[in-house]
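DM between two lab members

TW: hey, do you still have the (S)-2-haloacid dehalogenase entry open?
JB: yeah, one sec
JB: this one, 229 aa:
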Amino acid sequence: MKPTKPVIVFDVIETIFSLDALSRSFDRLDLPAHTKDLFFAQLLRDAFATSATGAYVPFVEMAKGTLHVLLVNLGVSAPASKIEQILPVFGQLDAHSDVQDALALAKSRDLEVLFFTNGSQKNTESLIARNALENLVDHVVSIDTFSQWKPYREVYLGAIAAVGGKPERSAMIAAHAWDTQGAMNAGMGAGWVRRQDSVFHPAMTPPDYSASDLTTLVDQVSVGLLNAA
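TW: and the structure you got?
JB:
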């Protein structure tokens, strides 16, 4: 596949789709307000650690295992039944309020829009349809294709190659510092959007761009991509 346009790449969970629905599912179990953040942080920790050993565990299996440990630690009775209530929430996430305008801007600038996720392709495509974003997203690539979690360098290169792009004509947008770090390590540009964190992680390489909302960030990143093209 020959590259034609610059590629703007979006992380999916938290960057595009909010985890507020997950927070509500924990609220219904009368768990502390920070449970969602603790769960997702532990999920990523366990996934990254497993990947570092050379093993691969897909998102759903990793989420299920992390949930089990967390719920038991929090003293929740019958954790298996609670897990069956919580896991489907990942298919019911809503897009952040700035997503529609941001993606429309990217398309108006004639960029290829790629969603690159640590989740499954099927679930990501379902979330895109649920939020009526089908006409604004050109490609979806999951780490399942490579059996390795982001932020491993090769998965970014593989995702860009899969849609006919080149790292130097691509940029990653994410709400996580580790994700922009991974993209820059693969030779891509990067933009960080403030979601759950108020400041960028000071121990990581600063991204090329940052903003408090996705539309402003897409504007910055797209200008940079088009000027470099």
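TW: got it. The chain has nine helices and six strands. The radius of gyration is 17 Å.
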